[in-house]
Amino acid sequence: MTGRGDLSGGQWAQLEPLLPVSNNRCGRWRDHRQVVNGILHRVRTGVPWRDQPERFGPWKTMYERHRLWSADGTWERLFQQVQSAADADGAIDWDISVDSTVMRAHQHAAGARRTPPSAPSGSKGVAAVEHLSKRPWLRLLGRVVAVVRQARAWGAPAAGSPPKST
Question: Name one Pfam family in it (predicted).
């Protein structure tokens, strides 16, 4: 049974060959499609790992797979491959519009922080990308972008730290 927000058959057919295969040292892996749909659900909704719906399997499996793929660069490679395929298909418009409008800052903005804010963990950016066009590449690219943003935020600390649950 598929739920709202799960990968469609076409999207899964594009992603499946790009995912790593089990090395059979630790037993068989749970179905990638079920786990990836669980990870996408968490990225879209922000629900804690332990509160994931049962249809995605054990929360620990999703957490560990996401942590492992964040640390070894699987999400980054997946993003690059999907982006290059979408670009080759002509589904990405690389034109950039620059506006030179100048606006005065409010007086309370004088003490604003100087470091950029961290990557958003919500799904507002993904929803905006999904509604721009109904082309399958753009919808898939938007979903992969959301996971890669989260993976980048986790990647550096996850490489050498023990697992943590949220």
Answer: DUF4096
Lowest mean pLDDT segment, chosen from 23-37, 52-66, 73-87, 108-122: 108-122
Question: CA 166, CA 163: separation in Å to the nearest integer?
Answer: 10
Judge whether 64 and 163 are in contact, CB under 8 Å: yes
- Tell me the pLDDT tens digit for each residue of 43-96: 999 999 999 999 999 999 999 989 988 998 889 998 898 889 888 888 888 887
| Residue among 77, 83, 54 at smallest CA distance from 155 | 77
Q: Round to whole Å and give the CA distance between 120 and 157.
A: 17
Q: Measuring CA to CA, which residue among 78, 83, 103, 102 is closest to residue 94?
A: 83
Tokens of 45: 């909704």
